[in-house]
Design a protein that fits this description.
The protein is an alpha+beta fold. The protein has two domains: about 80 residues, Arc Repressor Mutant, subunit A (Orthogonal Bundle), CATH 1.10.10; about 140 residues, Endonuclease, Chain A (2-Layer Sandwich), CATH 3.30.870. About 45% of the residues lie in helices and about 20% in strands. The protein is elongated, with a radius of gyration of 27 Å. It starts with a helix and ends with a helix.
């Protein structure tokens, strides 16, 4: 496949009409042409070429070097199309997040629904965490690990945690059970509203459990389990499970280490 055909297919996949993709490649090969030249050279009507030009111009993909916008055309950049796709991606991500929140709020009603397993990237991890904050299925969260370990030169997760606490208070959140290092195996139970007024919004993992970044959240009243860790490139990833045996194991494990 030659580069021009590959480019045309990518443009169409990105949402451009076929006529706009054809005009783009025509101008790319013939810088300085006019709209009239395109009408003569391409197998489209004059009105179709004008609509194609307007489509490209609206995305900043083509411009005129002349005072007359129909003449001396040249390709500018694909930046406008890239921004459009990025905006659509964010909108879809928000829609997916809303749908996930709705799904989390439903009662589990079939045997197939009793086990759910997902691997999430960094953006999806934050979205799921905040979705869980809005769920009305749990009142107490049991925590093991330290989200502070995910703070580094790449990112600041403090706003993520603050937003979680704020959302949880809105939805009637109560106790937060933390496994801390004050012990060796002591614990701390506090209210989300109390935590919201404090600066030390973190729990610290006991050293003998793991030295790697780890942040585990289990939600009483559900079978939800959310585990944060890092990939080999230092990016946050997480695993979300809806599985009673695994959730019960972590609830018992954390409870056994509480004093």
């Amino acid at each position: 496949m030659n580069e021009e055909l590959k480019l045309k297919k990518l443009l169409i996949k990105s949402g451009l009409s076929e006529r706009a993709a054809d005009l783009y490649t025509f101008v790319l090969d013939n810088e300085g042409v006019s709209v009239a030249d395109a009408v003569l050279a391409m197998n489209y009507s004059k009105s179709s070429i004008y609509r194609a030009f307007e489509e490209l111009q609206s995305l900043g993909l083509v411009e005129s070097l002349s005072d007359d916008w129909k003449n001396s055309l040249r390709i500018v950049t694909l930046g406008g199309l890239i921004k459009k796709l990025e905006s659509e991606k964010k909108q879809k991500a928000r829609l997916i997040s809303s749908l996930r929140a709705m799904e989390l709020s439903k009662d589990l009603s079939t045997p197939e629904a009793l086990v759910d397993f997902e691997t999430l990237n960094e953006e999806e991890t934050y979205e799921r965490y905040h979705d869980l904050a809005s769920s009305d299925k749990w009142s107490t969260m049991m925590v093991m690990g330290n989200w502070e370990d995910f703070n580094n030169e790449k990112r600041n997760v403090v706003p993520i945690e603050k937003k979680f606490i704020k959302n949880r208070i809105k939805h009637g959140g109560r106790a937060l059970v933390l496994l801390t290092k004050e012990g060796p195996y002591s614990g701390q139970i506090c209210d989300f509203e109390d935590l919201d007024t404090r600066e030390d919004r973190k729990s610290v993992m006991a050293d003998d459990v793991t030295k790697k970044p780890l942040w585990i959240n289990v939600f009483e009243g559900t079978n939800h389990l959310h585990i944060w860790n890092m990939n080999e490139r230092g990016g946050i990833i997480s695993t979300f499970m809806d599985c009673k045996p695994v959730a019960d194991f972590y609830k018992d494990f954390i409870a056994a280490r509480m004093v």
